[in-house]
Amino acid sequence: MLSEVDPLSPFVPGHFHFSDSIPDRPTLHDIVQRVHAFLDAYPDCPLIRYEDFVAEPAAVMPRICEALALGYNPDFTDTFAVIELSDNTGRSGDLISPRPRRPHLPALEQEARDSEPFMSLLTRLDYRLKDP
Fold first, then answer.
1. Which segments within the chain are labelled E, that is strand?
2. Angle of helix 28-41 relative to helix 116-125, nearest 10 degrees?
Protein backbone atom coordinates (compact mmCIF):
# COMPACT_ATOMS: atom_id res chain seq x y z
CA MET A 1 0.00 0.00 0.00
CA LEU A 2 1.30 3.44 -0.89
CA SER A 3 0.00 6.42 1.01
CA GLU A 4 0.56 9.48 -1.13
CA VAL A 5 0.27 13.15 -0.32
CA ASP A 6 0.83 16.27 -2.39
CA PRO A 7 4.09 15.36 -4.19
CA LEU A 8 5.63 18.79 -3.59
CA SER A 9 5.21 18.61 0.20
CA PRO A 10 8.61 17.04 0.94
CA PHE A 11 10.31 20.03 -0.67
CA VAL A 12 8.55 22.73 1.33
CA PRO A 13 10.92 24.54 3.72
CA GLY A 14 10.67 23.09 7.21
CA HIS A 15 9.49 19.66 6.06
CA PHE A 16 11.12 17.08 8.31
CA HIS A 17 12.30 14.76 5.50
CA PHE A 18 14.21 17.11 3.21
CA SER A 19 15.80 19.85 5.25
CA ASP A 20 18.14 22.20 3.39
CA SER A 21 20.79 21.29 5.96
CA ILE A 22 21.14 17.75 4.59
CA PRO A 23 24.17 17.52 2.29
CA ASP A 24 23.43 15.98 -1.10
CA ARG A 25 19.72 15.95 -0.38
CA PRO A 26 17.56 14.45 -3.12
CA THR A 27 16.35 16.81 -5.80
CA LEU A 28 12.82 17.02 -7.13
CA HIS A 29 13.96 15.01 -10.16
CA ASP A 30 15.55 12.32 -7.92
CA ILE A 31 12.38 11.84 -5.89
CA VAL A 32 10.11 11.81 -8.94
CA GLN A 33 12.26 9.16 -10.62
CA ARG A 34 12.19 7.03 -7.44
CA VAL A 35 8.42 7.29 -7.10
CA HIS A 36 7.91 6.33 -10.76
CA ALA A 37 10.30 3.37 -10.30
CA PHE A 38 8.43 2.26 -7.17
CA LEU A 39 5.05 2.50 -8.90
CA ASP A 40 6.41 0.58 -11.90
CA ALA A 41 7.85 -2.15 -9.63
CA TYR A 42 4.60 -2.55 -7.69
CA PRO A 43 1.79 -2.00 -10.18
CA ASP A 44 -0.76 -3.84 -8.01
CA CYS A 45 0.03 -1.82 -4.90
CA PRO A 46 -3.11 -0.02 -3.71
CA LEU A 47 -2.79 3.76 -3.71
CA ILE A 48 -4.37 5.56 -0.79
CA ARG A 49 -4.47 9.34 -1.03
CA TYR A 50 -4.05 11.29 2.20
CA GLU A 51 -6.72 13.75 1.09
CA ASP A 52 -9.23 10.95 0.54
CA PHE A 53 -8.48 9.40 3.93
CA VAL A 54 -8.82 12.61 5.95
CA ALA A 55 -11.97 13.59 4.02
CA GLU A 56 -13.70 10.24 4.63
CA PRO A 57 -11.78 8.09 7.13
CA ALA A 58 -14.62 5.61 7.62
CA ALA A 59 -14.86 5.01 3.86
CA VAL A 60 -11.10 4.63 3.28
CA MET A 61 -10.01 2.70 6.39
CA PRO A 62 -11.60 -0.58 5.25
CA ARG A 63 -9.48 -0.38 2.05
CA ILE A 64 -6.36 0.24 4.13
CA CYS A 65 -7.12 -2.71 6.41
CA GLU A 66 -7.82 -4.97 3.44
CA ALA A 67 -4.56 -3.97 1.73
CA LEU A 68 -2.62 -4.72 4.93
CA ALA A 69 -4.58 -7.91 5.71
CA LEU A 70 -5.79 -6.44 9.01
CA GLY A 71 -9.16 -6.70 10.63
CA TYR A 72 -11.27 -3.58 10.35
CA ASN A 73 -12.59 -1.99 13.54
CA PRO A 74 -15.50 0.32 12.72
CA ASP A 75 -14.84 2.14 16.01
CA PHE A 76 -11.28 3.11 15.01
CA THR A 77 -12.03 6.83 15.20
CA ASP A 78 -12.94 6.43 18.87
CA THR A 79 -9.55 4.90 19.69
CA PHE A 80 -7.41 6.93 17.29
CA ALA A 81 -6.17 9.38 19.95
CA VAL A 82 -4.94 6.54 22.19
CA ILE A 83 -2.47 5.18 19.62
CA GLU A 84 1.02 6.65 19.89
CA LEU A 85 3.29 6.67 16.87
CA SER A 86 7.04 6.42 17.29
CA ASP A 87 8.13 8.43 14.27
CA ASN A 88 7.82 12.09 13.41
CA THR A 89 4.65 11.89 11.37
CA GLY A 90 3.59 15.44 11.99
CA ARG A 91 0.31 14.12 13.36
CA SER A 92 -1.27 16.35 15.95
CA GLY A 93 -4.65 16.39 17.55
CA ASP A 94 -7.12 13.66 18.31
CA LEU A 95 -9.14 13.89 15.11
CA ILE A 96 -8.43 12.59 11.64
CA SER A 97 -8.67 15.77 9.62
CA PRO A 98 -6.81 17.71 6.93
CA ARG A 99 -3.82 19.73 8.07
CA PRO A 100 -2.97 23.13 6.63
CA ARG A 101 -0.46 22.99 3.81
CA ARG A 102 2.70 25.02 3.82
CA PRO A 103 3.01 27.20 0.73
CA HIS A 104 5.34 26.05 -2.03
CA LEU A 105 8.22 28.29 -3.03
CA PRO A 106 7.60 29.90 -6.44
CA ALA A 107 10.92 28.58 -7.79
CA LEU A 108 9.98 25.05 -6.74
CA GLU A 109 6.58 25.31 -8.37
CA GLN A 110 8.21 26.52 -11.59
CA GLU A 111 10.74 23.67 -11.49
CA ALA A 112 7.84 21.23 -11.04
CA ARG A 113 5.83 22.76 -13.90
CA ASP A 114 8.88 22.52 -16.19
CA SER A 115 9.48 18.87 -15.31
CA GLU A 116 7.72 16.40 -17.60
CA PRO A 117 8.40 13.50 -15.19
CA PHE A 118 6.90 15.46 -12.31
CA MET A 119 3.84 16.48 -14.28
CA SER A 120 3.33 12.87 -15.41
CA LEU A 121 3.60 11.77 -11.77
CA LEU A 122 0.86 14.22 -10.84
CA THR A 123 -1.36 12.73 -13.52
CA ARG A 124 -0.50 9.21 -12.45
CA LEU A 125 -1.42 9.97 -8.82
CA ASP A 126 -4.41 12.17 -9.72
CA TYR A 127 -2.96 15.40 -8.34
CA ARG A 128 -2.94 18.86 -9.88
CA LEU A 129 -0.80 21.93 -9.24
CA LYS A 130 -2.84 24.99 -8.46
CA ASP A 131 -2.83 27.67 -11.11
CA PRO A 132 -0.20 30.33 -10.45
1. 2-4, 47-49
2. 40
List of residues 6+ apart from 68 with CB closer than 8 A: 1
3-state secondary structure of 45: coil
8 Å CB contact between 15 and 9? yes
pLDDT 10s digits, 13-31? 554 444 455 567 777 888 8
pLDDT given for residue 18 in this prediction: 46
Q: How many CA atoms lie within 13 A of 62 on its CB side?
A: 4
The reported pLDDT for the residue numbered 15 is: 47
Closest C-alpha to 4, from 49, 56, 63, 58 = 49
In terms of Cα–Cα distance, which of 72, 66, 78, 2 is closest to 40?
2
**Alpha carbon distances (Å) from 41 to 25, 31, 34, 37, 129:** 24, 15, 10, 6, 26
pLDDT, tens only, 72-92: 999 988 887 777 765 545 556
Pick from 56, 46, 65: which is nearest to 1 by CA?
46
